[in-house]
Amino acid sequence: MFLTIKGKIIFFVTLVMVISASVNIYFTNRDVGNAMLAAQKKSAINILHSLDLIIKDDYHNLLSDKRTMTLLKRKQLKQSAHMIESVFKGYRSSVREDLPQILGIKHALNWLNSAPFEATDYFIIDKNSQVLASSNKDITNETFKNIKDIKRRNISDVMGYDNLEKQGDYAVCMLNAEKGEKKAVLAFFLPLDQWGYTIATSIDISDIEAEAQMKKKEMIESLIEYSKRLNITKNGFVYIFGSKDNILIPPPKQIKNDIHLSMNTLTNNIVYEDIKKSSKSDISELRFVSSNDAAKKSMIAYCNYFKPLKWYISVIVPVNEINRPAKKLVIRQSLIIGLMFMVGLIAVFILVTRIATPLNLLSSYAKKIPELDFTKPLDMETPIDHLPGKYKDEVGGLASSFIVMRQELSKNIQDLIKIAASRERIESELSIAREIQLGMVPKTFPAFSEHKEFELYATLIPAKEIGGDLYDFFLIDEEHLCFTLGDVSDKGVPAALLMVVTRTLIRTVGEKNLSPCDMMYNINNIISADNPRSMFVTLIIGVLNIKTGKITYANGGHNPPIVIPKTEEAYYKKEVNEPLVGAMPGMSYSNHSFILSPQESFFLYTDGVNEAMNPKDEQYSNEQLLAQIEKNKDKSPNEIIEIVLGTIKDHSQTAPQSDDIAMLMIKFNGEKTSNPISLDNSDG
After folding, report:
1. Which of 359 and 150 is assigned the larger pLDDT?
2. Higher model confidence: residue 350 or residue 273?
3. Which position has the higher pLDDT, 661 or 278?
4. What are the contacts of 532-535 at 24+ separation with CB within 8 A?
5. Which tens digits make up the pLDDT trace of 220-251?
6. CA-CA distances (angstroms) from residue 127 to 52, 191, 336, 673?
7. What is the largest CA-CA distance in the chain?
8. Do residues 670 and 549 touch, judged by C-beta distance below 8 A?
9. What whole-number distance in Å separates Cα of residue 26 and Cα of residue 33?
10. Sheet holding 600-605, edge to edge
11. Which tens digit of pLDDT belongs to each residue from 6-31?
12. Highest mean pLDDT: which of 42-51, 149-158, 166-175, 566-575?
């Protein structure tokens, strides 16, 4: 069945419907699940906010009560200290001036030893931190030694007379009590100016902390009752513990195996340790799987941290309970989609059955099309000609398309045969033109082998079948070599033609023994006089005196040549830019001269060399060209040019050649050192 169009249509329609249903169910499940997760997250965050507000409110009340009690005790201590101060001042004023001051101090201390101070201890110390009097026999010179208050200050420094302000200072510290326990003490220190003493009063504030702990316990009980009333999910719960891992609100009893103390298999950490780490941000989300849960259910914990009490607060919800409503919706939707799928499949089967017959006819006709000879006109009669008239729907349109396709295919194939023949002829002509073009430039090397005074090598590689770069060289007389290298402003046949014209003109004017600038001037006037396409050529024309090494050249807008000295580094010989050749008549050019010493060279190139591109659109560059020449300057012109071509190929990699490449190099050797060439030609 699936080998027929009918079977394939039914199969693919069924496949599309199944995929559509699956995608629909998947995205519904995902989106509804995400929506439920977002809703649950919002609910959990609201619960965390409400818990935070309750804890903050209770904590502020606790702080307020604690502060009130502390202020009352501070006031009590301060009053007691000032009373002691007044006693000292009173005894001092009652003693006659002729009696020693120590007598007044003695009377004041005696009074203090008998004075009642309810729940308040006092002691008097001198500047040497010696206790002169105390209401508590346990307070000695060593009591406050090495004791620090809650501000991390040494008590002995705080109560020193020289360190106290006139209004006095408070300190809270922990002192030893009975049975090795510690008790919290609030102390007030007041300087006694007349004698340089310090009056200290202290009171036990353990009851304040006990009251705070009791209220904190009431806070926790209130939070437990509040969390029980929360409607999170069936097995969702609030979990709170302190910084020392003391559990304040534990998981409910239905959460088995102490899930909060188990290992999180996702991180290999204890669950409450992960909650600690996650709670460092404002409100965070943590997923965990308890190692004690046989079902390996994934849980989500929404966490918060109450810094004043160092409490870690979290709302923990099972993921499956969040996704349960989404799963119910997906099941219901799947049933509806399945019913629609069956109805649609029946409808598709009926429809496909009705169109199968004409499609089978079209299929049979399509199988015969490859057997037809399209190289000649075909008959207009076809087995499917009646289908467009019988079927006014897509089947009829398809039959019409088959008929038109057959006609157009026959026509296109015949046209293609003609085009292929024409293209083959053009390619053959271009191949011949390439051979002719490359045959016009000298390509026999070494050139002028009878002249040992110099070595010369050149190469030309067109980017297309034929190109616009050119080079040439010829002897004007026995002492002068004319050489040239240029680049036409276009590619292909037009550039090749202008290249041929330019080379011919150079050869023509070169025979008149003109200077390079005069040759350039005449060539420019001839080319620009009849140049409808406004083409031009960048050109260097030079003359080498093969006896002296003197080079005279003119540069018509071409790249600067490279001079390769024997003992110094190679460099670009840059002159003032002069006009392009052929762009405008009447342009003047200048001669540039210098002398090559023996073993020195002159290198010409077109921009297809330094501007060669690689797949990353990076150029070969002038710097790399100069570096390669300098690196290999002791080699022959042939070797240097081949090395440069090799590095260009390595640089370009798979990138196509974007421009013609032409290079010419002359190396001056100096006077002849070999024996004269014999004129006796005795070949037999």
Report:
1. 150
2. 273
3. 661
4. 533/490, 533/494, 534/583, 535/488, 535/489, 535/490, 535/494, 535/495, 535/498, 535/582
5. 888 888 888 887 777 788 888 888 878 888 88
6. 50, 10, 94, 113
7. 160
8. yes
9. 10
10. 454-461, 661-668, 600-605, 562-564, 571-572
11. 677 777 777 887 887 788 777 777 77
12. 566-575
Give pLDDT, residue 573.
93
Considering Cα of 323, then 326, then 332, then 333, what sign does the dihedral take?
negative
In sequence order, the 6+-apart residues with CB closer than 8 A to the CB of 69 are: 205, 207, 208, 211
pLDDT at 676 exceeding the cut of 50: no
Q: What is the DSSP string of 234-260?
A: TT-EEEEEETTS-EEEPPPTTS-S-GG
Residues with Cβ within 8 Å of 86's Cβ and at least 6 positions away in sequence, in order, are none
Q: Which residues pair with 541 in a beta bridge?
A: 484, 554
Indicate if the pLDDT at residue 643 is higher than 90: yes
Q: What is the pLDDT of residue 103?
A: 58
539: closest CA among 570, 509, 564, 517?
517
In this structure, which amino acid lies at residue 156?
Answer: S
Mean pLDDT, residues 443-453: 88
- Give 633-642's long-range contacts (Cβ < 8 A, gap of 24+): 633/564, 633/570, 633/601, 636/455, 636/457, 636/667, 637/455, 637/456, 637/457, 637/601, 637/665, 637/666, 637/667, 638/445, 638/446, 638/455, 638/457, 640/601, 640/603, 640/665, 641/457, 641/458, 641/459, 641/665
CA 607 to the chain's CA centroid: 37
Is residue 677 predicted with pLDDT exceeding 50? no
Per the CB < 8 A criterion, the answer to whether 636 and 444 are in contact is: no
CB atoms within 10 A of CB 193: 11
Q: Which residue has the tokens 């969702």?
A: 236
State both tokens at 575: 């002159």
Q: Which of 209, 200, 141 has the alpha carbon at shortest distance from 174?
A: 209
Give residue 335's pLDDT: 82
Query: Of 640, 662, 232, 674, which is closest to residue 471 (Cα–Cα)?
Result: 662
Query: Is the previous residue joined to 446 through a cis bond, with omega within 30 degrees of 0?
Result: yes
DSSP 448-501: STT-TTEEEEEEEE-SSSS-SEEEEEEESSSSEEEEEEEEESS-HHHHHHHHHH
Helix axes 516-529, 492-510, angle to 10 degrees: 140
What mean pLDDT do residues 101-105 have?
59
In which region does residue 149 sit, left (phi positive, over 0), alpha (psi from -120 to 50) or beta (all else)? Answer: beta
Q: Which 3 state secondary structure label does DSSP give 532?
A: coil
User: Which amino acid does the sequence have at 534?
Assistant: S
User: Which stretch of DSSP H or E encloses residue 187?
Assistant: strand 182-192
Report which DSSP code applies to 295. Answer: T
Structure tokens at 421: 């023949």
Residue 480 has pLDDT above 70, yes or no: yes
Contact assessment for residue 375 and residue 417, using Cβ atoms and an 8 Å cutoff: yes
Domains of the chain with bracketed CATH: 22-342 (3.30.450.20), 376-438 (no CATH), 441-668 (3.60.40.10)
pLDDT tens sequence across 372-426:
666 666 666 676 777 777 776 777 777 777 777 777 777 777 777 777 777 777 6
Distance CA 62, CA 58 (A): 6
Q: Yes or no: say if 541 and 553 are a contact pair by the CB < 8 Å rule.
A: yes
CB 266 within 8 A of CB 288: yes
